[in-house]
Amino acid sequence: VSVDTELAWGESHRRDGLRHDYGTERAVIDALLELFTRYEISATWAVVGHLFLDRCALVGDRPHPDVVRPNYGWLAGDWFDIDPCSTLEEAPMFYGRDIVDAIRRCPVEQEVGCHSFSHVVADDPGCGAAAFSSDLATCTALADELGLELRSFVFPRNAIAHVELLAEHGFTCYRGRAEHPRRPRFRLFDRVWPSAWSAALPARHSSGVWNVPQTFLFAPATRPRWLPHALWARRPRVRIRQAARQRSLFHLWFHPYNISADPDQALHLLDGVLHEVARLRSRGVLDVMTMGALAESLEQGR
Ligand SMILES: [Zn+2]
Questions:
Q1: Ligand 1 centre from 263 Cα, in Å?
Q2: Which of 32, 109, 216, 286 could make a disulfide contact with 280, Cβ separation 3.0–4.6 Å?
Q3: Residue 11: pLDDT band with limits 50, 70, 90
Q4: How many whole angstroms from 6 Cα to the centroid of ligand 1?
Q5: Residue 85 Cα, ligand 1 centroid: separation in angstroms?
Q6: Which tens digits make up the pLDDT trace of 213-226?
């Protein structure tokens, strides 16, 4: 399981502004940690690096002057113009030290991973190697101050680029896409009875980092309207059983806002998914691990 934890950073550069209600995100995160504790699930929390902070301020006339800015054609002004240069109390949607602390306090060990410092779009030509490298260095330095070692990276918007730089900054894995060498002919059929072609496996990038592909976006609120919740909920369960049967990967991912869109329903459905995971784990046919732990295990040839 990986959770893209970004509060307002994911959408603040959009022209149409914030589309989600972020006010309930902290409550949702607490509920998720409770759920992970109940089912003993260690998840990877891909946290935007700015959320490691509890405050920041202008240095001279701009925030974070050491960070090399991306230079996007679609953006007027400075990338950090959206930074409130304030505190956790005053601008809780831009700082998240309390969230990082809550994740670390979870009785079932959770992994704090990285979702870039400021949600940069890495595959845009405006984000060159210097900007991306500077972004990663900022994250690892902030994590270091908190006694955290970042191993797992999730690209904002799943826009994958500069993978070789991840290895240089100490990362061992990233969340990519599943590569299916054979062309699927019956995609719809596969949703109900998955066959071998759609089984996902991690893959080693030439730089040495592992691609731990995502396989299922958990976003029940965006399901087709004609599809009842109970039927929709079969989809992840079918995939979990596929992973157990074909010794492959099931990698569920979402943002807290995918839960907060309809929290009671989404948490109920997620409870059902994790219940199935725990059932198969207790039968010895499924392992549950973080992205970082999986990469380490693969690296050791297990
Ligand atoms: Zn800042």
A1: 29
A2: 286
A3: confident
A4: 13
A5: 5
A6: 999 999 999 888 89
Residue 108 has phi, psi (to 5 degrees) of: -100, 120
Distance (Å) from CA 30 to ligand 1 centroid: 24
d(CA 269, CA 280): 17
> If you measure from the C-alpha of residue 198 to the centroid of ligand 1, how many angstroms do you get, rounded to a whole number?
41
Helix (H, G, I), strand (E, B) or coil at 111: strand
Cα(66) to ligand 1 centroid in Å equals 12
> How much is the pTM?
0.95
How are beta strands 152-153 and 173-174 bridged, if at all? Answer: parallel
Residue recorded with tokens 């809780």: 92
Tell me which residue has tokens 């907060």: 260
Burial label, 32 (beta-carbon count in 10 A; 0-12, 13-18, 19+): buried
**Which alpha helices (DSSP H) does the chain contain, by range?**
25-38, 97-105, 129-145, 163-168, 187-192, 229-232, 234-246, 256-260, 263-282, 291-299
How far, in Å, is the centroid of ligand 1 from the Cα of 83? 5
CA 189 to centroid of ligand 1, rounded, Å? 47
Cα 222 to middle of ligand 1, angstroms: 32
The CA distance from 6 to 146, in Å, is 18
Task: State the burial class of residue 45 (Cβ atoms within 10 Å of its Cβ: 0-12, 13-18, 19+).
Answer: buried
- How many whole angstroms from 95 Cα to the centroid of ligand 1? 8
Q: Is residue 273 scored above 90 in pLDDT?
A: yes
In total, the chain counts a number of residues equal to: 302
